[in-house]
Amino acid sequence: MTILRSQRGAIGTVGDVLILLLVLITIGVWWITQRNKPRAIPPPVPAAPVASAPLPIVTPSQTAPAPSLVAPPPSLPGGQLRPFTPGSLPGSQYAAAIETIHTLIEQGRDGDAEARLAALPREALNDEQIRQAAAVLWNNLGIIRQQSRGASAAVPAFKAAVALAPRDQTPRLNLTHAYVETKDPALTRDFLEETIQLAPNDPVAHVALADLLYAKDDLAGALLHLEQGRQRTPSGSPQRPYLDLVAARVSRAEQAEQKFSARESSHFLVKFNGNEDYDTWTKVLDILEDAYRDIGQKFNYFPGKPITVVLHTKNAFQTATGSPAWADGLYDGVLGRIQVPTQGALTDQAWLARVLRHEFVHALLHQRVEGGRVPQWLNEGLAMQLAGDNSWPDLDRVMKGDVALIPLGHLEGGWTGFPQNVATVAYLEGNSATAYLIERYGMGKVQDIIETLASHQPIAVAIKDRLLISYDEFQQRWSENINEKIRAGRS
Ligand SMILES: [Zn+2]
């Protein structure tokens, strides 16, 4: 059988889907029959479609454009200057010094301005007018630093401004936004609550607080501040769709998990439905801690932030996660959490280990590339390869004849929109291309590629830089490898 002779880009998504549907009615039925009959001769092709057959593991990672709730809103306001009016301090002996500093800031001479601001004597700052003026100048110094050297360079100046004028909204917000942008540990709950008290209409402080509360699994608190942040973000702004999405996800999770219990291990927080899943909870933690050590070693990377894992009952899973009917587990990239359906003590251990390890790979990659993108074929392929999942057949055992594969470039984005049978081919290809990558080049090169993706480079650049061949060449070699195996299998 000849599969898909599409040139890259020549056939759009709809075309691919249609062709795949046709192809899959054939190979899908063959494969599903094969699953229960190892090494059987391919049966005649029945006419029935494959849509009703369950997949071994199908786990759409619901990766939205934005990396996670943890991320700051995509573009923060650039910080605000405070107006300073020369000649406004006629009575003070320090007026000249203040005006000089103002001029230095206007000229962009931030080093000189800082030295003079820091040298203002204590008694100068006892004068309320001078104190306010110095706060304005520290704030403005922070702004020009931020513009020239980034937010972290601006923090000390904003802090000095806040210390001199603690009730002034502008420096407080500038400091808060700089902390958010740099993920400064000073961004505590107390700090954010103080900011909100002073400037209740700032959406960034609300979203940052929602983020902190979410990290502590306080879903109701997180939702409250997400809503506040959302309502204060204009509906036309670029941040709004992201906030809408996160708020909807957190709201759904909050509804579903109201009666859940939570338990922690060193690297995971596992939530489950009270009595029902207590036994499973113990098993789940063992599997996860094993995965953490074992898979972490393979990537030479261990997630720093604890990963939340939610165990749903089989019946509640789909509603609680919004996952397609065919999914067995899910890593939600927006919420940064793993969700799995279980049936309490009855849950099949081998299945559970496979699903949890698979989702753990997604969670690990998500933290590893933070804001970068792992193409879906590689993301799923690595999850399948490292989950110890042998329930999927090799691509060459499913395909017949001279095979032209779907270009990997068509499998880089999300697959949630794919019908089940198209998703099946996508998973088979991702698994196969990744297996080839690991076999031919080794996990060290995979780590290198991930490192390049983490620096926000596309996969084509990562392959070129790390394997010293083009993306097209890689696909060509992989496809030849499949065809060789098919020929060997036939002879
Ligand atoms: Zn997956």
Walkthrough of the structure:
This protein has 491 residues and is mainly α. It folds into three domains: 13-51 and 386-490, no CATH class; 95-253, Serine Threonine Protein Phosphatase 5, Tetratricopeptide repeat (Alpha Horseshoe); 261-369, Glutaredoxin (3-Layer(aba) Sandwich). Helix content is 57%, strand content 5%. The protein has helices spanning 13-35, 95-106, 110-118, 122-126, 128-149, 151-164, 169-182, 189-198, 203-215, 219-231, 240-256, 278-299, 314-321, 349-369, 376-386, 395-398, 420-441, 443-454, 459-467, 471-490, and strands spanning 261-264, 268-272, 307-313, 330-332, 337-342. A five-stranded mixed sheet has the order 1-2-3-5-4. A hairpin with a 4-residue loop joins β4 (330-332) and β5 (337-342). The structure holds zinc ion. Zinc ion is lined by residues 59, 61, 358, 362, 380, 383.
List the helices and strands and how they pair.
Blueprint: H1 13-35, H2 95-106, H3 110-118, H4 122-126, H5 128-149, H6 151-164, H7 169-182, H8 189-198, H9 203-215, H10 219-231, H11 240-256, E1 261-264, E2 268-272, H12 278-299, E3 307-313, H13 314-321, E4 330-332, E5 337-342, H14 349-369, H15 376-386, H16 395-398, H17 420-441, H18 443-454, H19 459-467, H20 471-490
Parallel strand pairs: 2-3, 3-5
Antiparallel strand pairs: 1-2, 4-5
Helix pairs in contact: 1-17, 2-3, 2-5, 3-5, 5-6, 5-7, 6-7, 7-8, 8-9, 9-10, 10-11, 11-13, 12-14, 14-15, 15-17, 17-18, 17-20, 18-19
